[in-house]
Amino acid sequence: MATKVELGAFKIPGTLSVRVKSEVKRESRKQAALALFRRGACSAGIAARMLGMRLGEFIELLKKEGLSYVDDRDVTGVSDRRLLRQLRAHVRARRSAA
Question: How far apart are CA 60 and CA 39, in angstroms?
């Protein structure tokens, strides 16, 4: 079971509008999920769930942010196994959703 971890809280000035505060929180979540994925600390599927997205939407976000779904710098067997696990999980999720 996944454990929820709070990232270091920072205070948003009370003078900002509710809309701006909401945008800052949303952008913070997005940047945290992207950073975790980029560092290999979580899979694309987990990062997508953190943002309330489907995997395909997260992959599109990666493209928009100029990031690759596959780390081209690391061509070892480890990254291949990680990618294979992610693809298998994606296929299982699509099958169960159908």
Answer: 18
Q: Which residues contact 72 (CB under 8 A, 6 or more apart)?
A: none
With beta carbons less than 8 A apart as the criterion, state whether 50 and 33 touch: yes
Residues 6+ apart with CB under 8 A from 46: 36
79-96 core/surface letters (b: 16 or more CB in 10 A; e: else): eeebeeebeeebeeeeee
The secondary structure of residue 82, as a DSSP letter, is H
Is the per-residue pLDDT at 61 higher than 70? yes
Short-list 37, 40, 39, CA closest to 50: 37
- Which one of 9-18, 28-37, 76-85 scores highest in mean pLDDT? 28-37
Looking at per-residue confidence, does 31 or 68 come out higher? 31
Q: Which two tokens stand for residue 36?
A: 């975790």
In terms of Cα–Cα distance, which of 95, 80, 5, 2 is closest to 46?
2
